[in-house]
Amino acid sequence: MDELKVFSGTAHQELARAVTDYLKIPLGKIEVFNFSNENTFVKILENVRARDVFVIQPFCSPVNHNIMEFLIMLDAFKRSSAGRITAVIPYYAYARTDKKDQPRVPITARLLADILTAAGANRVLTVDLHAPQIQGFFNIPVDELTGLNILGDYFIQKNISNPVVVATDIGITKRARDMAAILNAPLAIMEKRRLGNADRTETLNVIGEVSGKTAITIDDEIDTGGSLSNTVNTLVGRGATEVYSCCTHAVFSGPCMERIASSPVKEVVVTNTIPLKSNPGGKVTVLSIAPLLGEAIHRIHTGKSVGALFEQQP
Ligand code: R5P
User: Fold this and answer.
1) Ligand 1 centre from 7 Cα, in Å?
2) Which of 219, 224, 245, 274 maximizes ligand 1 atoms within 8 Å of its Cβ, making it the mutation to test the pocket?
3) pTM metric for this prediction
4) How would residue 1 be classed by pLDDT, with cut points 50, 70 and 90?
5) CATH number at residue 9
6) 295 exposure class (CB count in 10 Å sphere: 0-12, 13-18, 19+)
7) Is pLDDT of 2 > 90?
8) Mean pLDDT, residues 136-143
9) Which of 45, 242, 258, 299 is the Cys-Cys partner for 304 at CB 3.0 to 4.6 Å?
10) Cα–Cα distance for residue pair 95/59, rounded to 1 Å
11) Is 59 in the same domain as 177?
12) Are residues 52 and 140 in the same domain?
């Protein structure tokens, strides 16, 4: 494969620049703007013919705009005869709409996979999908990275005494167990129920011992902060001495900021797959995923194993 080129949409240029800094290459030149009628225009400002092109765009807010912009960019690269196009999607939105679990609903995560492929993606590089099975929605190769070790290393350095890792729901239990292994800590699981299609949850039960311990809750994403808020309150009510929370994707929509600010949670640790808009009460710590993405891009470009990056992981 010819020369490596990395481009960015408008969603998170700071992350894209950190990735190209890691790779020691300039960020590709591209013009992206909206006409007054909200139609998006893209023009690639350098030759990409036969090049190994990586295009970075997390599907963060404004979600539908960022997706559409990304699709238009992929189309531009395809029509400019790029040799191979890798869609680098640090945060894959619509991942929770991944099954037909009630009548007459879409499977939007699958729809998105189809339109990304139709637009020109030859492969996908992403981070902590809500459900790993979403990889199977694509008929092109998908490399899924995890932020687990970055988060785990942070807590190891904090040297937290008497920790317990808490899965915020049953779905995240496997990743929570991996985190518990990294931290050499026991595991507890929250039994959470989502109330209808609204962004509301209730905590039903805590499985495991948390009293007198420092709890570290883990989730793939924090969206409205409802789960975080319920989880932290429940853990404090069950006698946890302190509660830290962590996740890969800081979606932080709606009332999330206020919920974090008013929650007894001591610190919320996230990665920068999504740009952070504000930091309520300075409680949020952001760890960079850029070196991991950069290394994965380097390995894909040079034909080295991406899985080897995680071989030491549980
Ligand atoms: C859902 O199952 C996810 O893993 C998260 O638990 C969810 O996105 C959190 O949402 P919220 O912050 O709105 O409670």
Assistant:
1) 30
2) 219
3) 0.96
4) low
5) 3.40.50.2020
6) middle
7) no
8) 98
9) 299
10) 11
11) no
12) yes
User: Under a CB-based contact definition with an 8 Å cutoff, are residues 268 and 246 in contact?
Assistant: yes
Residue of minimum CA distance from atom 13 in ligand 1? 224
Structure token digits, residue 93? 């939105």
If asked whether residues 128 and 154 sit together in one domain, one would say no
Partnered with residue 166 across adjacent β-strands are 188, 217
Ligand 1 centroid from CA 3, angstroms: 40
Q: Which atom of ligand 1 is nearest to the CA of 253?
A: 13
CA distance readout (Å), 262 to 131, 171, 198, 266, 283 = 30, 26, 22, 11, 11
Told to judge if 213 belongs to the known catalytic residues of this protein, a careful annotator would answer no
pLDDT value at residue 312 = 61
Torsion over CA: 262, 263, 266, 272 (sign): negative
Q: Fill in the DSSP letter of residue 239.
A: T
Q: Which residues line ligand 1 (CB under 6 A)?
A: 96, 130, 168-169, 171-172, 199, 201, 219-228
> What pLDDT digit, counting tens, does each position of 206-232 carry?
999 999 999 999 999 999 999 999 999
138 and 158, same domain (yes or no): no
On whether both 110 and 201 belong to a single domain, the answer is: no
User: Per the residue annotation, which of 192, 277, 283, 304 is the catalytic one?
Assistant: 192
pLDDT number for residue 314? 41
Question: 40 burial class (0-12, 13-18, 19+ CB within 10 angstroms)?
Answer: middle
Q: Are residues 196 and 301 in the same domain?
A: no
How far apart (Å, rounded) are the C-alpha atoms in residues 171 and 248?
Answer: 15
Q: How are strands ordered across the β-sheet holding 52-56?
A: 4-8, 52-56, 84-89, 123-127, 142-145
Q: What is the CA radius of gyration of the chain?
A: 20
Domain residues for the domain of 77 are 4-146+291-311
d(Cα 224, Cα 217) in Å, to the nearest integer?
16
Same domain? For 158 and 278 the reply is yes
Number of domains in the chain: 2
